[in-house]
Amino acid sequence: MASYNLKVNGKKVSVNTDDDTPLLWVLRDELNLVGTKYGCGIGQCGACTVHIDGIAMRSCSVPASRMEDSEITTIEGLADEKLTPVQEAWKELDVPQCGYCQAGQIMTASSFLKQNPNPNNEEIRNAMHSNLCRCASYNRIEKAVALAAKKMS
Questions:
Q1: 96-144, pLDDT tens digit by residue?
Q2: Nearest to 105, CA basis, from 82, 89, 122, 121
Q3: For the domain 85-152, what is the CATH superfamily, name and number?
Q4: Is 38 exposed, middle or buried (0-12, 13-18, 19+ CB in 10 A)?
Q5: What is the pTM (predicted TM-score) of this model?
Q6: Is residue 127 a contact partner of residue 119, using CB atoms and an 8 Å limit?
Q7: Residue 147, SS3 per DSSP
Q8: What is the fold of 2-77?
Q9: According to DSSP H, which parts of 48-98 are helical?
Q10: CA dist., res. 43 & res. 31, Å (int)
Protein backbone atom coordinates (compact mmCIF):
# COMPACT_ATOMS: atom_id res chain seq x y z
CA MET A 1 0.00 0.00 0.00
CA ALA A 2 1.09 3.50 -0.81
CA SER A 3 -0.33 6.99 -0.51
CA TYR A 4 -1.31 8.85 -3.68
CA ASN A 5 -2.43 12.43 -4.16
CA LEU A 6 -5.19 12.74 -6.73
CA LYS A 7 -7.20 15.63 -8.08
CA VAL A 8 -10.82 14.51 -8.39
CA ASN A 9 -13.62 16.87 -9.41
CA GLY A 10 -11.37 19.84 -8.73
CA LYS A 11 -10.40 18.77 -5.21
CA LYS A 12 -7.10 17.35 -4.03
CA VAL A 13 -7.49 14.07 -2.17
CA SER A 14 -5.04 11.61 -0.68
CA VAL A 15 -5.75 7.89 -0.90
CA ASN A 16 -3.98 4.79 0.37
CA THR A 17 -4.15 1.94 -2.09
CA ASP A 18 -2.15 -0.77 -3.81
CA ASP A 19 -0.24 0.22 -6.94
CA ASP A 20 -2.49 -1.83 -9.21
CA THR A 21 -5.88 -0.85 -7.75
CA PRO A 22 -8.11 0.42 -10.56
CA LEU A 23 -9.22 4.03 -10.32
CA LEU A 24 -12.84 2.81 -10.36
CA TRP A 25 -12.48 1.19 -6.94
CA VAL A 26 -10.69 4.17 -5.44
CA LEU A 27 -13.49 6.45 -6.66
CA ARG A 28 -16.26 4.18 -5.39
CA ASP A 29 -14.79 2.63 -2.25
CA GLU A 30 -12.40 5.28 -0.97
CA LEU A 31 -14.02 8.51 -2.15
CA ASN A 32 -17.69 7.38 -2.15
CA LEU A 33 -18.22 8.65 -5.72
CA VAL A 34 -20.62 5.88 -6.69
CA GLY A 35 -21.99 7.46 -9.88
CA THR A 36 -19.17 5.74 -11.74
CA LYS A 37 -20.42 2.18 -12.15
CA TYR A 38 -18.77 -1.21 -12.37
CA GLY A 39 -19.89 -3.03 -15.50
CA CYS A 40 -17.44 -5.53 -16.93
CA GLY A 41 -14.11 -4.81 -15.24
CA ILE A 42 -12.17 -5.09 -18.51
CA GLY A 43 -12.82 -1.70 -20.13
CA GLN A 44 -15.34 -2.95 -22.68
CA CYS A 45 -18.75 -1.72 -21.56
CA GLY A 46 -18.16 1.94 -20.64
CA ALA A 47 -20.17 2.03 -17.40
CA CYS A 48 -17.05 3.19 -15.54
CA THR A 49 -16.16 6.04 -17.91
CA VAL A 50 -14.66 9.16 -16.34
CA HIS A 51 -12.68 12.06 -17.78
CA ILE A 52 -8.95 12.02 -17.31
CA ASP A 53 -7.53 15.35 -18.41
CA GLY A 54 -10.76 15.88 -20.35
CA ILE A 55 -10.61 12.60 -22.26
CA ALA A 56 -13.16 9.84 -21.68
CA MET A 57 -11.41 6.79 -20.23
CA ARG A 58 -12.45 3.55 -18.57
CA SER A 59 -11.64 3.83 -14.88
CA CYS A 60 -11.68 0.04 -14.39
CA SER A 61 -8.59 -0.24 -16.61
CA VAL A 62 -6.49 2.60 -15.20
CA PRO A 63 -4.47 2.13 -12.01
CA ALA A 64 -5.12 4.96 -9.55
CA SER A 65 -1.36 5.05 -8.89
CA ARG A 66 -0.81 6.55 -12.36
CA MET A 67 -3.26 9.42 -11.86
CA GLU A 68 -1.25 11.73 -9.60
CA ASP A 69 -0.64 14.38 -12.26
CA SER A 70 -4.05 14.09 -13.88
CA GLU A 71 -7.35 15.91 -13.54
CA ILE A 72 -10.04 13.30 -12.89
CA THR A 73 -13.70 14.20 -13.41
CA THR A 74 -16.55 11.88 -12.50
CA ILE A 75 -20.26 12.26 -13.25
CA GLU A 76 -20.60 13.95 -9.84
CA GLY A 77 -18.12 16.64 -10.91
CA LEU A 78 -19.30 17.15 -14.48
CA ALA A 79 -21.72 19.97 -13.66
CA ASP A 80 -21.75 22.68 -11.06
CA GLU A 81 -25.19 23.81 -9.94
CA LYS A 82 -26.57 23.85 -13.48
CA LEU A 83 -26.78 20.78 -15.71
CA THR A 84 -24.48 20.59 -18.72
CA PRO A 85 -26.06 20.64 -22.21
CA VAL A 86 -25.51 16.87 -22.41
CA GLN A 87 -27.29 16.28 -19.11
CA GLU A 88 -30.10 18.64 -20.17
CA ALA A 89 -30.55 16.71 -23.42
CA TRP A 90 -30.59 13.39 -21.56
CA LYS A 91 -33.30 14.72 -19.26
CA GLU A 92 -35.31 16.37 -22.03
CA LEU A 93 -35.40 13.19 -24.15
CA ASP A 94 -35.89 10.90 -21.14
CA VAL A 95 -32.98 8.73 -22.27
CA PRO A 96 -32.46 6.30 -19.38
CA GLN A 97 -34.46 3.18 -18.80
CA CYS A 98 -32.68 1.38 -15.98
CA GLY A 99 -30.03 4.13 -15.88
CA TYR A 100 -27.08 1.93 -14.96
CA CYS A 101 -24.93 2.84 -17.97
CA GLN A 102 -26.01 6.45 -18.23
CA ALA A 103 -23.19 8.08 -16.27
CA GLY A 104 -20.68 6.42 -18.59
CA GLN A 105 -22.75 7.38 -21.63
CA ILE A 106 -22.91 11.02 -20.51
CA MET A 107 -19.18 11.14 -19.76
CA THR A 108 -18.36 9.71 -23.20
CA ALA A 109 -20.77 12.08 -24.96
CA SER A 110 -19.40 15.12 -23.07
CA SER A 111 -15.81 14.36 -23.98
CA PHE A 112 -16.76 13.61 -27.58
CA LEU A 113 -18.65 16.88 -28.02
CA LYS A 114 -15.72 18.89 -26.67
CA GLN A 115 -13.59 17.35 -29.42
CA ASN A 116 -16.30 17.48 -32.11
CA PRO A 117 -18.91 20.14 -31.32
CA ASN A 118 -20.80 19.74 -34.60
CA PRO A 119 -20.99 16.00 -35.32
CA ASN A 120 -23.14 14.27 -37.90
CA ASN A 121 -25.22 11.19 -37.01
CA GLU A 122 -22.57 8.73 -38.15
CA GLU A 123 -19.89 10.44 -36.05
CA ILE A 124 -22.19 10.31 -33.02
CA ARG A 125 -22.91 6.62 -33.58
CA ASN A 126 -19.20 5.85 -33.96
CA ALA A 127 -18.28 7.86 -30.85
CA MET A 128 -20.91 6.17 -28.70
CA HIS A 129 -20.68 2.61 -30.05
CA SER A 130 -18.27 1.36 -27.41
CA ASN A 131 -20.62 2.23 -24.54
CA LEU A 132 -23.02 -0.63 -23.99
CA CYS A 133 -26.61 -0.22 -22.88
CA ARG A 134 -28.38 -3.36 -21.72
CA CYS A 135 -31.75 -1.64 -22.22
CA ALA A 136 -30.84 -0.77 -25.83
CA SER A 137 -31.64 2.95 -25.57
CA TYR A 138 -29.18 3.63 -28.37
CA ASN A 139 -31.57 5.65 -30.52
CA ARG A 140 -32.42 7.98 -27.64
CA ILE A 141 -28.75 8.25 -26.69
CA GLU A 142 -27.81 9.27 -30.23
CA LYS A 143 -30.68 11.78 -30.37
CA ALA A 144 -29.60 13.24 -27.03
CA VAL A 145 -26.00 13.67 -28.23
CA ALA A 146 -27.29 15.48 -31.33
CA LEU A 147 -29.56 17.67 -29.22
CA ALA A 148 -26.71 18.48 -26.84
CA ALA A 149 -24.54 19.52 -29.79
CA LYS A 150 -27.29 21.93 -30.89
CA LYS A 151 -27.60 23.30 -27.34
CA MET A 152 -23.85 23.90 -27.24
CA SER A 153 -23.68 25.79 -30.53
A1: 999 999 999 999 999 999 999 999 999 999 999 999 999 999 999 999 9
A2: 89
A3: [2Fe-2S]-binding domain (1.10.150.120)
A4: middle
A5: 0.96
A6: yes
A7: helix
A8: Ubiquitin-like (UB roll) (3.10.20)
A9: 85-92
A10: 21
